Amino acid sequence: MKYLSLFVIFVCLGCETVIEINPPEYTPEPVATSFFSPDSVWSVTLHSSLGINAKGDTSTEYITDASVRIMDGSNMIEVLNYVGNGEYRANKGRLPVSSTKYTLHVDLPGATSIQATSTAPPPVPFSDYSIEKTGESGGSFGYKTYRLKAVFKDEPNPNFYQIGIYQYVAGQFPEMDSLYQRESANELHPGWSCGYVAAAETEIDIEDRGTGCGVWDAIVVTDRNFDGGTYPWSATVEVSETFGRSELLLVLSSLSEEYFEYQRTLEHNLSLDPLLDEPINVYSNVSGGLGVFAGYTNTSVILPLPE
Fold it and tell me: pLDDT per residue over 270-287, tens digit each?
């Protein structure tokens, strides 16, 4: 009897029930992606969304037969033509103008249409800026540390900013697509954060945070603690003249809320712990579909490295 009971237990343990779950039918939606600024030619990428059980990537779902227009109210600004890889681009014409509300209109086969609206904020010029050498790091490549300072005037109402520090390195790194390499920053002025999520959630500290932002981190801030005031920004950066020009390019980007929210939600999902955190919906301002249509405006200044 004892051996019979053990046999029954082993048989039961060896049995398993396989339950097949069929996901619901998924209807693809059109996805539009466009980031525009007064420095850029109008460009929009279109593809169809993929379901959770779909195999492949968006390159197999490019939309190639859409009618794409940029409107300023009832005025036609540009008609974009398909140039390949899902991209529609303006051949010539007017560049985006800051402080102008633009609407993207996309007509798809089958009488389907989508649209989205955004504005490139007005440029925010620096009222003052400076750079000074603070030390040398040594080594064969001659890295030196510099302190950057800049002052700009924030306009009333919510605003979103990003700062980038770049060095011209063309010819030094042939494998790089860009002529400018982004440099990492340390000892940021209070309030600036290494990422969109932190910028949206962290209040400005009384003292310097002393946090370093890596080369690929976005240095961003919102103006909720200095709305409508003059704001001084500062950070330290370590660069080598061996790898590029003896100057730095400082870029202050004024972001639309659509741009900021899209980057914030995208960053949240890319950096979450799948065991502890729940994903959120990536921000979309496209009516009738998915994606983002968002403006931004850059202000740049070249800072020669002091001897």
Answer: 887 777 778 889 999 999
- Looking at per-residue pLDDT, the higher value among 178 and 193 belongs to 193
Residue 263 has pLDDT above 70, yes or no: yes
CB of 210 closer than 8 Å to CB of 236: no
Which residue, among 163, 187, 167, has the nearest Cα to 179 in the 3D structure? 167
Q: Where are the chain's structural domains?
A: 30-119, 126-281+296-304
Does the domain at 30-119 match CATH 2.60.40.10? Answer given as: yes
Q: What is the pLDDT of residues 191-230, one digit of tens each?
A: 899 999 989 876 655 444 556 888 888 999 999 888 899 9
